[in-house]
């Protein structure tokens, strides 16, 4: 695949909606005679016209020559951005070990503590496409500071909160800022990295994200007994400001030559506020409906609002939040659904591998949580190695994407086979490591492939949309895998105790024991269970984890199918942009052949 012809940065960005004007010259192919009725000069002018049209239609620095970034400045950008990603990801997993203490101090009880995490994840997932769209209107460099301010403001509100509602509000604001971090990190990486180093940069971004998820619970859980929970959020304020300011200062303004002829008011007027509101509302309702117990009303309203959003984007607005050529691209949509399925299956491993170690293998809580270290190291290494060794060019990565997702699916199924107490623990560690490697490699490959499937002026939006589906995987993974797990676990425990007691119905004491075992997996080895009761509990948890991972392996087959359906075909305009260059080259060959014969 040849790269599209690129022009210099002299063309100005069009303030209106993206369009794809066609050149009215006759289409030529390799079968067209070289001595057709048009001269080589007309072919060359056709190439110039199409190249100029392409430049005028694109709003990104992608169509311009990349500014050379000195090594020291590049390191400063990378470190600042990586730390900001790490902070954002830490907030995703850090609440798991401290939300109980926070809920108790704020007077919140029951399942309400889970909203401390959901209030952060829902805006983070739902607003990612909006962040990507804003990056096509404003330079990403200028968006970093507002994002850092939102994260710091959220941390400040959490620090001073004295009620459940105030704390959740702070988490929502911080999640709003977090929505733009990963999207802008990918966009900045695409803008500043060379073609050969682009894959490595994307791998490092993913490694920072998974490092934050991996160590967030460790950092928050380890520091809270020492300093309390309020300093954990207070400390995020200067950290967010410092990293955001570091990114802003380190990126040279010349590296983001956006449209300078359009005023800020005109740029703000170009934003599709109605579409952004409808899209965000539909995603929020979807995630809210499955965050705790499945709620029917928002789950039914969300598709209706999504249909309204599609109608608005197609018929009402001139510059939609997600362009029609993105919504109408089956390759991009299949990529997004494949990413959602991958993350649902992946989060099932992250959720239930520690529970398996705790309830089935009898590990301590700290040792059970450490099972995530090899799989997350594998995730980071997979993305970095793939980016360093392979993703060093533009073009399709169809087969590598499918291969990585297939390895992930097989490793997930193998996990279901080895979820016993008899097999060596080292085997389980090796398989979760392979699972992480395949996930990291698959995420990098699919991201590179969706860039190939995207138009040049929509790749930021396409990658942000992919990030939305990826981010939603945690919420959907909790709902889907959790429903399967707890249904299987309850059934296994009830049938086991019925067989042990020899009756048709469980006694009230047995029902309380079943509820306690479901809610507290540590009771399997840390409670006062008889050997027979403990064996039933162990087998119940082992069977439930096997069932979850078998279901996720089945989902993995669907993921591979979706990824295969993305195809290798680039958008039509990319191939048309290349065609004039090929024609001009053939014209030069014809002229040189004539000179040689003379």
Automatic annotation (TrEMBL):
One GO molecular function term?
basic amino acid transmembrane transporter activity
Domain of life from the UniProt record: Eukaryota
The listed locations are: Membrane
In this chain the Major facilitator superfamily (MFS) profile domain maps to 77-571
Protein's UniProt keywords contain Magnesium: no
Topology with respect to the bilayer: Multi-pass membrane protein
Keywords from the named record: Glycoprotein, Membrane, Transmembrane, Transmembrane helix
Q: Which Gene Ontology cellular-component terms appear in the entry?
A: fungal-type vacuole membrane
PANTHER family xrefs: MAJOR FACILITATOR SUPERFAMILY, MULTIDRUG TRANSPORTER, PUTATIVE (AFU_ORTHOLOGUE AFUA_3G14560)-RELATED
* Protein name (Swiss-Prot/TrEMBL): Major facilitator superfamily (MFS) profile domain-containing protein
């Amino acid at each position: 695949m040849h790269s599209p012809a690129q022009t210099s940065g002299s063309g100005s960005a069009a303030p209106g909606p993206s369009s794809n004007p066609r050149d009215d010259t006759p289409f030529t192919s390799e079968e067209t005679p070289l001595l057709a009725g048009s001269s080589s000069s007309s072919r060359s002018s056709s190439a110039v016209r199409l190249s100029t049209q392409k430049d005028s239609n694109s709003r990104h620095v992608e169509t311009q020559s990349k500014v050379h970034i000195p090594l020291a400045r590049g390191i400063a950008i990378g470190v600042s951005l990586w730390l900001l990603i790490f902070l954002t990801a830490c907030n995703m997993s850090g609440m798991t070990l401290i939300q109980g203490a926070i809920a108790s101090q704020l007077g919140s009880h029951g399942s309400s503590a889970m909203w401390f995490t959901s209030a952060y994840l829902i805006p983070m997932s739902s607003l990612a496409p909006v962040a990507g769209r804003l990056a096509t209107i404003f330079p990403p460099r200028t968006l970093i500071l507002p994002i850092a301010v939102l994260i710091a403001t959220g941390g400040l509100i959490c620090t001073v909160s004295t009620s459940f509602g105030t704390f959740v509000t702070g988490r929502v604001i911080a999640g709003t800022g977090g929505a733009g971090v990963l999207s802008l990190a990918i966009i900045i990486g695409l803008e500043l990295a060379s073609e050969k180093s682009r894959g490595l940069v994307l791998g490092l971004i993913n490694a920072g994200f998974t490092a934050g998820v991996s160590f967030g619970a460790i950092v928050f859980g380890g520091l809270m007994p020492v300093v309390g929970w309020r300093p954990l959020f207070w400390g995020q304020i200067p950290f967010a400001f410092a990293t955001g300011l570091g990114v802003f200062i380190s990126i040279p303004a010349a590296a983001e030559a956006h449209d300078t002829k359009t005023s800020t008011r005109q740029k703000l007027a170009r934003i599709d506020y109605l579409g952004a509101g409808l899209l965000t509302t539909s995603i929020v309702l979807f995630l809210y409906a499955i965050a705790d117990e499945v709620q029917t009303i928002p789950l039914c309203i969300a598709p209706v609002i999504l249909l309204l959003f599609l109608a608005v984007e197609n018929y009402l607005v001139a510059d939609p939040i997600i362009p029609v050529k993105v919504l109408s691209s089956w390759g991009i949509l299949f990529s997004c659904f494949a990413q959602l399925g991958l993350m649902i299956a992946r989060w099932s491993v992250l959720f239930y591998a520690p529970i398996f170690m705790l309830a089935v293998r009898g590990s301590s809580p700290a040792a059970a949580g450490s099972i995530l270290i090899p799989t997350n190291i594998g995730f980071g290494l997979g993305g970095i190695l793939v980016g360093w060794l392979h993703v060093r060019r533009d073009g399709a990565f169809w087969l590598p994407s499918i291969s990585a997702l297939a390895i992930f699916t097989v490793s997930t199924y193998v996990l279901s086979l080895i979820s016993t107490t008899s097999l060596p623990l080292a085997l389980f560690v090796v398989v979760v490591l392979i699972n992480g490697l395949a996930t990291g490699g698959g995420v990098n490959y699919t991201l590179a492939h969706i860039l190939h499937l995207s138009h040049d002026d929509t790749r930021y939006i396409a990658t942000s949309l992919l990030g939305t589906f990826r981010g939603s995987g945690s919420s959907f993974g909790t709902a889907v895998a959790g429903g399967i797990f707890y249904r299987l676990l309850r059934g296994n425990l009830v049938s086991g105790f019925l067989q042990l007691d020899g009756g048709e119905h469980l006694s009230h004491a047995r029902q309380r024991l079943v509820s306690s075992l479901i809610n507290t997996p540590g009771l399997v080895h840390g409670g006062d269970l008889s050997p027979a009761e403990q064996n039933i509990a162990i087998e119940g948890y082992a069977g439930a984890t096997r069932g979850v991972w078998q279901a996720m392996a089945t989902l993995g087959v669907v993921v591979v199918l979706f990824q295969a359906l993305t195809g290798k075909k680039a958008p039509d305009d990319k191939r048309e942009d290349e065609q004039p260059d090929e024609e001009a080259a053939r014209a030069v060959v014809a002229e040189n052949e004539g000179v040689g014969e003379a």
